Amino acid sequence: MFSNLTAPKQDPILSLSQAYRLDQRDNKVDLGIGVYKNSDGVTPVMQSVLTAQARVLEQQTTKAYVGMAGDEEFNAAALSLVLPDAAVASRASSIQTPGASGGLRMLAELIAFSNPGATVWLSNPSYVNHQPVMEAAGLKVKHYRYFDVATKQVDTSALLEDLAKVKAKDVVLLHGCCHNPTGADLTPEAWKSVTELAQRNGFLPFIDIAYQGFGDGLAQDAFGVQHMASNLPELLVTSSCSKNFGLYRERTGSAIIVADQATHATNARGKLLQMARTTYTMPPAHGASIVKTVLLDNELKAAWQQELEQMRLRLVNLRANLCSELVERTGSHDFDFIQQHKGMFSVLGFAPSQMLRLREEFGVYGVDDGRINIAGLREKDLAYVASSIAAVR
Ligand code: LMR
Predict the structure, then answer these.
(1) pLDDT, tens digit, 9 for 90 and up, residues 34-70
(2) Where is the Aminotransferase class I/classII large domain (predicted)?
């Protein structure tokens, strides 16, 4: 049965973590996979999460099945974190998914079921797993221009020019905030312009929001999602608790459908549940129990928000300090864009061969597309990483 299978291509992000683990050098630095690390290089369990987890374990009386949609209290709480407006919530539905990757796949399958010939438009570049997930669901993929490699900012006019050509009922995948991999985000004005295009041309926006709270703040980062949800008849959203709750391995995410009327949102959710049943039946419960415990307790929620804000501010500082180190080592302001980017990532504008040099000569692990994870930096790595980048540029 399996003799005709060949070894598949390795995942460009997950394979890096493996290579990093095997690297014996003491000065190696992991700027690959998108996880937050503290000054000691540890991905901590947040204090609010530990408190909620203790409460969950203390109060849990059963491990019986939950249901195909997961925990409904989690679903409501996670939905209101992204879309707090009651009018929007009244025509929205959501299910708990195994991480936002699970949400991406479920919603991609829903698109394929509802509109079999649909094309999904991805930003160029986009998260390395977006295209494989869309194609795995049988969807066609095209790209719209997004990132200006010269300025390292969003090329808004090129983006709008490309999106103006997207046909009705095709899908445009957008990053809610903290664009992966570039770190360059849409401005509120650009969100409004894309929304107007969607209104005019009838394409369906699909927003992946995996880093809410790491850009400009929890509320600010949801501007685009909220603006689109309020102004468009339909919207798909997948959100993640991996990063902002630090629950990476618990696989806790949501798939959200906003429809023109409540019954349509409910019917679409029914289809998602049917697909869940034939895929994994129901999502894992632990992470969702923790998130719901945090979000439904005002004191815990405030403590969580404070911890998240501290992480965000530390990232802002790391960006500023990496820039100063780079100015010092290159005698130029070529890397100042790092300070303008949002969230965990920036792309350096390096070719794969330069990323390979960073890895092989300096033990600095970034993704081949030029992405580095600022949230993987320890303060004590800054000078070394800056020297390595300066040597390779
Ligand atoms: C990343 O982009 O590094 C993360 O979202 C992890 C992943 O699953 O790829």
Answers:
(1) 999 999 999 999 999 999 999 999 999 999 999 999 9
(2) 27-389
- 244 C-alpha to center of ligand 1: Å? 13
pLDDT per residue as tens digits for the range 265-307? 999 999 999 999 999 999 999 999 999 999 999 999 999 999 9
Please calculate the CA angle 81-85-87 and round it to the nearest 5 degrees: 140
Task: Print the domain residue range for 280.
Answer: 65-296
For the chain, how many helices (H) and strands (E)?
A: 16, 13
pTM of full prediction above 0.90: yes
Cβ(357)–Cβ(392) under 8 Å?
yes
Q: What is the CATH number of the domain that holds 356?
A: 3.90.1150.10
Query: How many Å apart are CA 317 and CA 311, to the nearest integer?
Result: 10
Q: Is 367 in the pocket of ligand 1 (CB under 6 A)?
A: no
Residue nearest to atom 5 of ligand 1 (CA): 34
> pLDDT-derived band of residue 234, with 50, 70 and 90 as boundaries?
very high
**Ligand 1 in contact with 129 (CB < 6 A)?**
yes
Specify the CATH number for the domain of residue 97: 3.40.640.10
C-alpha 56/C-alpha 41 separation (Å) is 28
**254 and 350 inside one domain:** no
Can you give the pLDDT at residue 117? 84
Residue 7 lies in a domain: no
Residue 13 CA to ligand 1 center (angstroms) comes to: 7
